[in-house]
Structures are given as C-alpha cells and as structure tokens.
Amino acid sequence: MSDRIWYVGIDFGTTGISAVLLNAATQLTYPLYWIESDQLGSTSTTPTLKKHFRLTPAIYLSVIEGEPSQALAVPHQASSASWSVGPLAVKIANATADRSDSGLLLHNLKPLLKLATPYYCPETEQWEPILQWSPTQQVSMGWIRQALQALFTAMTPLSSQVWLYSAASGLDNQTFREATENLGGAILGCPAYWPDTYRFNLREAILGAKLVEHPEQVVFIEDAIATILSELRDTAAGYQWRGHTLAINSGATMTELVLVDLPNQHQKLTHPDFKLRSFAYGGQAIDQDIISQLFLPQAEEALCEDLNIPLESWPTPGEANLEQRYRLQRDLESTLLGRALLHLAGHVKQVLQHQDRYQCKLGKDRTFHLRRKELEMQVFLPFMRRLNQEFNALLSETGVATQGIQQAMCTGGTASIGPITRWLRQKLPSAAIIQDTYPADRSPGCSRVAYGLATLAFYPQILELSRQQYHDYFLLRELLKNLPTQPTSAQQILQRLERQGINTRVCAKQVVGFLEGKLPPGLVPTDCPSLLATTAAQNPDYQVLSAAPLFEKTEDRTYNANSVQCDRARQYLDRILEGSMQTLEEPYTVRLGLTRKP
Predict the structure, then answer these.
(1) What DSSP element (H or E) covers 361?
(2) Please, what is the Cα angle at 554 between 552 and 558, to 5 degrees?
(3) Distance set, CA 161 to CA 32, 73, 83, 385, 391 (Å)
(4) pLDDT tens-digit series, residues 285-338
(5) How many Å apart are CA 102 and CA 106, to the nearest integer?
(6) Which pTM does this prediction carry?
(7) Distance CA 38, CA 82 (A)
(8) What is the CATH number of domain 6-213?
(9) What is the location of CATH 3.30.420 in the chain?
(10) For 502-533, how does the pLDDT look when each residue is reduced to its tens digit (9 = 90+)?
(11) What SUPFAM superfamilies does the database record attribute to this sequence (predicted)?
C-alpha cells in the first residue's frame, strides 16, 4: 500500500457530497465533479451537460418485488430493485410524487447513520432495524447502507449510473480511472462527538463501493478541523496562517466551532490542540422555524390541519429538539404541501437577506407577507444566541480573549447568512475573516471541507489515533472475549486487555464505561425512537441487550460479568459482522504519512 500515491477526501454532507483527490507525489489536489445528462424526457440528440461539484446525496429506489409501503427487508438482493443516484433521483421522485405505486426517495441520510448498524436477524427474517420513513412507508436500515454504497460508487468511472458521469477537474479520464482504482486511503469528515456507529456505517459503504480494500484505509477527522486544514497549505496569497484561529462550520444538520493556536510549524499540531464545540442545529432547522414562526401565524390553524401536524409538534426556535425535528422533517417531506413549504422556506431565507419585504404565494389560495425584521428576530436571533453561547464557552475553555483571535473562517450553507457575517465582524473586529458564500443563482463549488480532508494526508499526527485504532465495537468485542470468571477490579480487567496487546492508556475510559453498564451509542438504537418502526420494540436482540447490564458492580468496586448477557452481546456483534466487510479482529493501523512539502 505504501506505493499508492492517491488519496481522496470526502465531505459527506446532508445535502451534498464533495470529494477531492490528492496526488501525494506532486502534492496537487483535484476536485471531483459529476456530469448529468439532461436528456430525461427530451428528444434532443445532443444532451446538455452540467458540471456539479457537489453530488446530491439522494437515491431513488424503484422496487420490482414487493410494495413500497411494505418494509424493504432484503437489501442485498440487487435483483429486487434498481437505483437512480443524485439529481436524477430527485427528478424521478418529483415526476412520480402523485403515484401511489412509485418507489422510494432515500435522502437526508447523514443523521440516520448514527442511529443504528444494519444486520440480518434470523428471528424476524429481515434486515434490522426497520425505519418509519414516512407515515405510510417503512424501509430497512440495510437499504440505507446500500444507498450509501451506490452514492460512493458514483464517485468512480465504474459507476453503473447511465445519467451520471464522474470526473476530476484537471485530470484526464485515464489518470482519473487509475487514481480511483489505486487509492491509498479515504479520509472522511465526521461531526464532533458523533458515535462510532456513524463511522462504522460510512466505512462499510466505502468498502462496499470498492474505493479502498481495507478498513484501516478509511480514516475520519472532524469537519471543523478539516475546515482549518483547508487553509494550512494555501499560501498562494503569501499569507501564513498562525496564531489563534477560529473556524465555524454550519451546514444543514450541525453547527460546529473549533479554536486552535496555530504554531509556525504546522507539523507540530496534534488533535488535542483543537478545541471543539458542537450543537445540532443548522439549515434544516432554520427552514422549519421559518415555517412555524413566519408562515403558520398567517395561516392560523388551517395550515396545521392541512399538514396534519398539531401546533405542539413544532419545536422551539433555535433549539435542537432532535426528536421533534426529525419527526417534523419526516412528516413535512411525506406530503406535497410539506415539501412545498420547505422549498418556500429555503427561498425566503435567501430573499429576505437582500430585501426588507417579500410577498410569496403557496398554491392558489395562500399568500404570505414577510419582513426581514421578523425573520431575523424570530428565527435568526435564537440561532445566533446559541452560537454566541457556544463561542463564549469555547473562549472560557481555552482562556483566549476575542482580541487574541487573529483569523477566522466560516463555511457551510448556513454559515453564509447575514447575521453570522455581522456577528463575526462585531466579535472579531481585528481578525482576518474568510466567509464562504453560496450564490443562489449558480451551483456551489467543491466544499472547503473536502479540500481540508484531503490535506490531512500531509498532517497524519492530527488524526485522533486512539479512536482510529480502538473504536467502540472493537473494544467491546475484545472485552467480551476476555471475561473474568470471578469479580474483578477495573484495573485487573484493563491489565487482561493489555496482555492482548491493547494500549489501555488511550482507551481505558471506554472500557470502564462498558463495565459501568454503557453500550456503544447506536449498538442498540435508542436515539430518536420516532424514526424507528413500531416493530423495533419487538426486536429480540434489542430486547435482550436492554434487559440487563453486561456487568454487575459489587460493593467492593469489582465487576462481575453477567455471562448470559455477555453471550447475547457476543452473538449480536457476530450478527453485525456477518453482514459486514469489517472484521474487528485487530486494531486498525493508520495508513497515512506522506512526503512533506519542502
């Protein structure tokens, strides 16, 4: 693997995927783009080709066997369905929106990947868990993984998508093919503090798409840190980034902040140097709050009745309210009216930043009179209060004064709104500020995060090595393989793991958490239960794992293994691995480390 010179940085976002190839030998980067053949429904023999530097993470699943209203429970039988990826998937979904026999549009996938890991359950004879995709449609989590694999396959010339072709800006087709067939590693972004279940699912899809051969070739770094990395090697303007630096990454799902003191020699940076804050609020939540705060008051209760969404179901502006927001997004997207409102809210969000008033129509009988002041006071202000709160907490944690911040950058679709611009100028009047913009009249370019992810290959010491080597599933499996037969202290258990070659100094906290009764988040889906079908409560594996802890803590602070419960957990992990390309037999090594730039 050491002779492979190509790496790819992949920014997997809620509403767009960007990717950048890095040639380690020349140290040059090449952003990927996709060409869509615009001849769907056209008789033209010369299709119009458009370059998209962000792939829409949507997949339309046309079911051949079974009804779309039933649970799609056998995701690995490729003959039972056909896929359409990206912009074409959205077009087909829109064209068939009023057909009861249509397929299923899978999108907004990112938040689902931390919910659970798909596996085949012999007792239920289907892939679990089953998601309640809409009020009338269910889908197996296994199909979500297959959809991800189709998306990542669309990044290579081997894609089977007739209407979508991938390429890399600055590379000829032959070199692009050779690069994607010989990748030394794939570097992906990850929201701060998201569980290893998210990484496990993404890694599995990358392996299934054959972008790389081995699980350890897939590494992760926080999106906000990648935002910083995107500027470290960009010295074309003669400006050297050093000193206290702030980055804000605000997209559709999350808003994250990172503060770091950049040394003169960037090779001295390590992961602990980056101080992170994160909260689950972004562009989708803003769109929901525009509907609830600007549209609903003008339509009284009629709009809620037409949507079949009661007033109490709408979340508090500026707050995460994850359970409510996931359920609300699902309900809105399941109806034509809801989708129209979401589209209109996104349009209003852009228009009212450039004019004081705006009048818009919804259908033939609804007109909304909107003002920028209302948007800023009722929607943006709660968001900015939370952002300011997180920023102040970051300053308190690091002891850095606002005057000490020398430069700041702001990226992500939500980060371009006017209030953030004004807030940054007010907070950091003496700092150099870079703020990415996303004009509504043209397609966005490749994301800054994707460039930063590719750049990580030059700074492998920034990678959180312990989490790459010892993720939760691996450690739990090792613990279950080395169970004590009598009550044992935590220190003795850690010593048993050390004899197996595990560096417990970097993972002791995770192991002790398992001893105290915690399970890896997402191993059993407990986050946002409204996303799950009601049958999830009857899943036998989830029931037994939730019935009792794996260990019982005694009065003398020793731990006694519940052998029956541990056997069940081992069996469950084996079931997950039976349908996976990851084995968890050894800690993952790190396959990064390139020739440094002179």
Answers:
(1) strand 357-362
(2) 90
(3) 16, 24, 8, 44, 44
(4) 999 999 999 999 988 678 888 888 888 889 999 999 999 999 999 999 988 899
(5) 13
(6) 0.93
(7) 20
(8) 3.30.420
(9) 6-213
(10) 999 999 999 999 999 999 999 999 888 888 99
(11) Actin-like ATPase domain
Helix (H, G, I), strand (E, B), or coil: what is residue 148?
helix
| Cβ-proximal residues to 426 (8 Å cutoff; 6+ apart), any chain | none
What 3-state class would DSSP assign to 140? strand
Long-range contacts of 500-503 (CB under 8 A, 24+ apart): 501/587, 502/470, 502/475, 502/478, 502/587, 503/466, 503/469, 503/470
Q: How far apart are CA 353 and CA 415, in angstroms?
A: 13
Q: Report, as an integer, the average pLDDT of 151-162.
A: 78
- Pinpoint the alpha helices (H) of 239-335: 283-290, 296-299, 302-307, 322-333
Measure the CA–CA gap between 162 and 560, rounded to whole angstroms.
Answer: 58
Contact 215, 247 (CB under 8 A): no
- In single-letter form, the type of residue at position 189 comes to G
Q: How far apart are CA 294 and CA 345, in angstroms?
A: 9
Report the candidate in 222, 272, 270 with the shortest Cα–Cα distance to residue 248.
222
φ/ψ bin of 423: left (φ > 0), alpha (ψ from -120 to 50), beta (otherwise): alpha
Fill in the DSSP letter of residue 524.
Answer: B
Distance between CA atoms of residues 23 and 7, nearest Å: 7
Q: Cβ neighbours of residue 364 under 8 Å, at least 6 residues apart?
A: none
Q: Are 30 and 180 in contact (CB under 8 A)?
A: no
Q: Tokens 């605000």 map to which residue? A: 250
Beta bridge partners of 410: 248, 435
- What are phi and psi for residue 470, nearest 5 degrees? -120, 75
**Tens digit of pLDDT for each residue in 166-208?**
999 999 999 999 999 999 999 999 999 999 999 999 999 999 9
Alpha carbon distances (Å) from 256 to 69, 380, 454, 544, 546: 37, 17, 20, 36, 32
Tokens 């050894």 locate to 586
